[in-house]
Specification:
With 288 residues, this protein is an alpha/beta fold. The protein has eleven helices and seven strands. The two termini are 57 Å apart.
Length: 288
């Protein structure tokens, strides 16, 4: 802005030319078209102002890098040799060549130490010092944590859904559900079945799948409906999309009355695309 104002003042005062006036520029273009004699200083003034403006803009917007000193102690410090074990007390040097592989410093010191230190008293303490720590590390007690809930009726559930002609989608885990049975129907309903589990874990599986569907399909995620079945649920709830069953017999009876049948407007190409997509999602979620 300073350069523009200074250029305007100079051109108005020196040449009577307003750089912000379209009429003046039109008049100048007419003079140039007629090959009129124009002072070279006029063009020199414009070029100098333009160069000053560009240099000023570059000075303002050019990147500036702060030179922050970084600690280089770990990188430039000399590599030190690994810590050596502290030398054993002098009382062990007399018998180190018997039990520990150490050598006496001189025959005279060995003879002098042997006269004042009996061998049976030093050898047990030396062996205990060398071998007791590994024994303690090996016998350290470990605490076991309970694993996730399994689906003990997975094979029977899978056989029931296959007999109802549903398309099975293997999946090792969905959220907090371990080893659920996943099946797809022709009406784009995705069934998630487990046993001896809670409603909370099933709802968590719904949320996990819904998040993936919305992130990858967008508005088309509403075309896939989620339904859940829990055999012998561990908690109680009345979720409208989750059906509880007391035993596997009730579940088989329910599936016999709700077999997978093709609707009247069944689109095979669309269903194949959805089936492939669900297989990919199940494989992806199961590996997380």
């Amino acid at each position: 802005m300073t350069v523009a104002l200074a250029t305007t003042f100079w051109m108005n005062t020196r040449y009577g030319f307003d750089i912000f006036s379209a009429a003046h520029w039109e008049y100048l273009s007419g003079l140039q078209a007629d090959r009129a004699n124009i002072k070279p200083e006029f063009y020199v003034s414009l070029i100098i102002a333009l160069c000053i403006g560009l240099i000023g803009l570059y000075t303002i917007v050019r990147p500036r890098f702060r030179k922050i000193p970084m600690p280089t102690e770990s990188a430039n410090a000399p590599v030190s040799a690994p810590d050596q074990p502290a030398p054993a007390p002098q009382t062990y040097n007399n018998y180190a060549n018997v039990g520990g592989g150490m050598r006496p410093r001189s025959p005279s010191s060995v003879q002098s130490s042997a006269m004042h230190q009996p061998r049976p008293q030093t050898m047990p303490s030396l062996r205990q010092q060398q071998f007791t720590p590994p024994t303690q590390r090996v016998n350290m007690p470990t605490q076991s944590t309970p694993g996730p809930r399994e689906n003990p009726l997975a094979n029977e559930i899978k056989a029931t859904l296959e007999s109802a002609e549903f398309i099975m989608k293997p999946c090792k885990r969905i959220g907090k559900l371990n080893n659920p049975v996943v099946a797809l129907g022709y009406n784009q309903v995705l069934w998630i079945v487990t046993s001896n589990d809670s409603y909370e874990n099933m709802i968590d599986a719904f949320q996990t799948l819904s998040t993936v569907f919305e992130d990858t399909l967008g508005d088309s995620a509403n075309d896939i409906t989620l339904r859940g079945c829990i055999i012998s649920p561990t908690t109680s709830s009345n979720h409208e999309m989750i059906s509880p069953f007391n035993d596997i017999g009730q579940f088989k009876q329910f599936m016999n009355g709700n077999k997978n049948t093709k609707p009247d407007n069944f689109d095979k190409e669309l269903f194949d695309a959805i089936s492939t997509y669900v297989s990919t999602v199940a494989n992806y979620i199961g590996k997380e």
